């Protein structure tokens, strides 16, 4: 039963788009990724109007203090199993406002984040790539690329910290 | 009405397939795209000019007592503005066209380099070595 559910979960991810005090740049890119040109629906990604219907949350923006309790309520109203995507530099690490007085500084301080998609704003391709990484279609490319250039590919498989003397 | 629908169908047939086959075929960004930053460890002199101009403070400089300067590039909050590339005197920092940065851990997005510096005997702060040979004797490592 669970294996069937896992299969279905991978084939159809319904997303709910949340703006947690973002500047709208990342939101426009998300909407761009859902257009027929990029066609996210071929991966089963569909925008829904209620968090209770959603499998994944797309959160943009450095979370301000005002939106923080609402975001917590939103997180609780998404049924399990759920995926949380932090989209944009603000959502991943706080962006320019990482030490500002009125922001929490990143989505990961409010709720557990599964995938980070940095960029200011990320390209629609980058958002699609992040979803593809989440679905297991492709491997992630950061942190491993440098070692792969230098021929340390066995370190990547073992998952060891990437330190190397030059 | 039926004829107008036929016309629409004809227009759609003419256009053909417009969807970008992105995850299966690479889609290179346009010229001048600013993506992930890359640091050349051999060129960096550790002047920390990039850390001064970085708007989100994504470049962190930590000085050790032993003459090492650690520079951490937090790509989590990098906004790819390219100020570090403009200000770098040695052209060590460059912005590549890589945009596929998504990960499941934040630790992947921190690049750290360590540069050998001389220390001032009075204030014990780091500065650039007098002779470039001093730097070449000891080079840093990169994470």
Record keyword descriptors for this entry.
heterodimer, A: 166 residues, alpha/beta, Rossmann fold, 2 domains, five-stranded parallel sheet, 7 helices, 35% helix, 14% strand, disordered C terminus, B: 143 residues, alpha+beta, Alpha-Beta Plaits, three-stranded antiparallel sheet, two-stranded antiparallel sheet, 4 helices, 21% helix, rod-shaped
Structure description:
The complex is a heterodimer of chains A (166) and B (143). Chain A has 166 residues and is α/β, with parallel strands linked by helices. In chain A, 35% of the residues lie in helices and 14% in strands. Chain A has seven helices and six strands; from the N terminus they run αβαββαβαβαααβ. In chain A, strands 2-1-3-4-5 form a five-stranded parallel sheet. The C terminus of chain A is likely disordered. Chain B has 143 residues and is an alpha+beta fold. Chain B has one domain: Alpha-Beta Plaits. Chain B has four helices and eight strands, in the order αβαββαββββαβ. In chain B, the strands form three sheets. A three-stranded antiparallel sheet of chain B has the order 2-3-5. Chain B is rod-shaped. The model of chain B has no long low-confidence stretch (mean pLDDT 80). Chains A and B meet through helix 4, strand 5, helix 5 and strand 6 of A and strand 8 of B.
Which structural class do you get from the secondary structure elements of chain B? alpha+beta
Shape of chain B: rod-shaped
Domain module tally of chain B: 1
Question: How many DSSP H or I helices of chain B?
Answer: 4
The largest sheet of chain B is: 3 strands, antiparallel
Q: What spatial form of chain A do the alpha-carbon principal axes imply?
A: globular
Listing every helix as H and every strand as E from the N terminus to the C terminus, the arrangement of chain A reads: HEHEEHEHEHHHE
How many helices of chain A does DSSP assign? 7
* Spatial extent as radius of gyration of chain A: 17 Å
């Amino acid at each position: 039963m669970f294996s069937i559910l896992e299969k279905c979960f991978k084939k159809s991810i319904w997303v709910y788009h949340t703006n947690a005090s973002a500047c709208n740049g990342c939101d426009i890119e998300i909407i761009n990724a859902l257009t027929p040109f990029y066609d996210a629906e071929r991966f089963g990604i569909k925008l829904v109007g209620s968090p209770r219907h959603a499998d994944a949350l797309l959160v943009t923006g450095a979370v301000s203090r005002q939106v923080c309790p609402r975001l917590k309520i939103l997180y609780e109203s998404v049924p399990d199993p759920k995926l949380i995507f932090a989209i944009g530099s603000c959502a991943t690490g706080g962006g320019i406002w990482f030490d500002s007085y009125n922001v929490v500084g990143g989505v990961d301080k409010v709720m557990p984040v599964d995938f980070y998609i940095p960029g200011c704003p990320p390209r629609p391709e980058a958002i699609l790539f992040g979803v593809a990484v989440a679905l297991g279609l492709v491997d992630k490319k950061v942190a491993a690329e440098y070692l792969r250039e230098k021929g340390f590919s066995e370190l990547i498989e073992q998952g060891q910290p990437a330190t190397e003397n030059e | 009405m039926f004829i107008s629908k036929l016309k629409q169908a004809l227009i759609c047939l003419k256009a053909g397939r417009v969807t970008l086959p992105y995850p299966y075929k690479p889609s290179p960004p346009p010229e001048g795209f600013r993506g992930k930053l890359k640091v050349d460890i051999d060129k960096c002199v550790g002047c920390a000019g990039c850390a001064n101009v970085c708007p989100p403070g994504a470049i962190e400089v930590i000085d050790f007592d032993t003459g090492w300067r650690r520079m951490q590039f937090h790509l989590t909050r990098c906004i790819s503005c390219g100020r570090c590339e403009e200000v770098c005197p040695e052209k060590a920092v460059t912005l590549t066209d890589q945009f596929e940065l998504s990960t499941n851990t934040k630790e992947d997005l921190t690049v750290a380099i360590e540069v050998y510096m001389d220390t001032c005997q009075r204030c014990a702060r780091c500065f650039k070595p007098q002779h470039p040979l001093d730097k070449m004797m000891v080079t840093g490592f990169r994470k």
